[in-house]
Amino acid sequence: MTAFPSDFLWGAATAAYQIEGAAQEDGRTPSIWDTFSHTPGKVLGGDTGDVATDHYHRWREDVALMSELGLGSYRFSVSWPRVQPTGRGPAVQRGLDFYRALVDELLAKGIQPLLTLYHWDLPQELETAGGWPERDTAYRFAEYAALVGEALGDRVEMWTTLNEPWCSAFLGYASGVHAPGRTEPESALRAAHHLNLAHGLGAQALRTALPPRGKISVSLNAAVVRPLTESAGDVDAQRRIDALATRVFSDPMLHGSYPADLLDDTAGITDWSYVQDGDLAVIKHPIDALGINYYTPTVVSATAEGEAPRRDGHGASEHSPWVGAENVAFHQPPGDLTSMEWSVDPSGLHDLLMRFTREVPGLPLLVSENGAAYQDEPDADGAVHDPERIAYLRSHLAAVQRAIADGADVRGYFLWSLLDNFEWAYGYSKRFGAVYVDYATQKRTPKSSARWYAEVARGGRLPAEG
Ligand code: FCB
After folding, report:
1. Of the listed 105, 127, 134, 369, which one is catalytic?
2. How far apart, in whole angstroms, are the C-alpha atoms of residue 116 and residue 162?
3. How far apart are CA 26 and CA 95, in angstroms?
4. What are the structural domains of the chain?
5. Ligand 1 center to residue 167 CA distance, Å?
């Protein structure tokens, strides 16, 4: 195996609500995820992020672990309600101090921080005022971006505005399996537009706040959608889902327009009149890199008349997240399944990297999330062996390497996740970490995949199999 580029970033990723805990400390107020997880029936087992992996208190230990694992970069998110509790007004210094200390520790250990501003934890007060379906939320986000940019821009070089706006808009406001749990198709499309606007306004605010070396990106869970057959109906189902999953965000962000087919498909739900003059130019604000989050592909077909649409692996809800494309059936793609019941198919990652390489030549790409959940358990000696995760990572890194060989400008890879953590509606039942967390004691144990990944990061190449 040839080596990865010598300056390739070997990283791991987390998100604030999934790891920090300390939900009520130092002035933090509830986010929509606090409200949602405390609502009975919303999260498996009634789990919440109140304590999570207690990273807010154990961050030094966690950075030491990253350093031991030879990570070159760490992608984390800032908790908006920790820094600006009501989503308005001045920043809380204690909140900013936490991230400042974290970043300084990372830098001291030679680990490049990649800071995501929004990984789904909207201050509850902003949701009470209407949430993402309201235009004002985008302006609030820009103000928050400026606060954090001004506070940390001297030490953080790599910035991401939003993580996976698809989940925020469509799981949050259409299927309701994520916070805030609303099931309103038009609100989901309004949310999508205001998230796009938030990205553009946030990028503008960062550009002003950051020194010239600051780099701005966004992370999309662009979907790899494959038709079940080559029939015209199935190919059309693919087109519809691609528009709703990916192009609704990537077209305005990268090209400054909404896809015409999306506007047609959703005409019965919304007239898009909330897209105001000038918005698209703002949304198209230049970015320095595009983050791709990839886990599994999607296979779709057209449903026959009267056939019930099948659910799609994004949680059980009678409400579809695919507003305007309800007559699409989802099928289990081929491949082994992870414990999320997501099929393992590294070709999807190669496809995505090549898609954006063709679509936006010259735009650097990051794999900002990739990984797998398995039912890891410590053995009698306390060691955690996770050969399936090693196989998953190996095959996906090989796909990244193929994409680089085929001309994709991929600058780094961020394993999801550094630690086992709060997996949203699945609570603590799904373990994505390279490091095992015993939630009763908060003891961290690197799994064998963490050791394997450390070897990859140190050598800059995939070790021989076996
Ligand atoms: C992504 C999220 C991340 C994590 C992984 C498994 O959609 O960005 O927080 O939950 O999935």
Report:
1. 369
2. 7
3. 7
4. 9-228+286-295+338-459 (3.20.20.80)
5. 9
Q: Is the CB of 323 under 6 A from ligand 1?
A: no
Q: What is the 440 CA–ligand 1 centroid distance (Å)?
A: 23
Is a pLDDT exceeding 60 seen at residue 313?
Answer: no
Residues written for the chain: 466
Question: Which amino acid is present at 399?
Answer: A
Q: Which of 20, 134, 164, 423 is catalytic?
A: 164
CA angle at residue 151 from 145 to 154, to 5 degrees? 110
Task: Answer whether residue 357 shows pLDDT above 80.
Answer: yes
Average pLDDT, the chain: 96
pLDDT of residue 94: 97
The protein residue with its alpha carbon nearest to ligand 1, atom 2, reads 164
177 lines ligand 1 (CB under 6 A): no
User: Would you place residue 304 in the very low, low, confident or very high pLDDT band (cuts 50, 70, 90)?
Assistant: confident
Helical axes 448-459 vs 387-405, angle rounded to 10°: 30
Q: Using the mean position of ligand 1's atoms as its centre, give its distance from the Cα of residue 416 in Å.
A: 8
Does the Cβ of 386 fall within 6 Å of ligand 1? Answer: no
* Closest atom, ligand 1, to C-alpha of 219: 8
Phi/psi-derived region of residue 262, left when phi > 0, alpha when psi is between -120 and 50, beta in every other case: alpha
- Percent of the chain topping pLDDT 70: 97
What confidence tier does 254 reach under pLDDT thresholds 50, 70, 90? very high
Closest CA to 364 of 274, 256, 289: 289
Is 127 assigned a catalytic role? no
Do residues 191 and 133 lie in contact, with contact meaning Cβ atoms separated by under 8 Å?
A: yes
In this structure, which residue's CA is closest to atom 5 in ligand 1?
A: 416
| Residue 423 beta carbon below 6 angstroms from any ligand 1 atom | yes
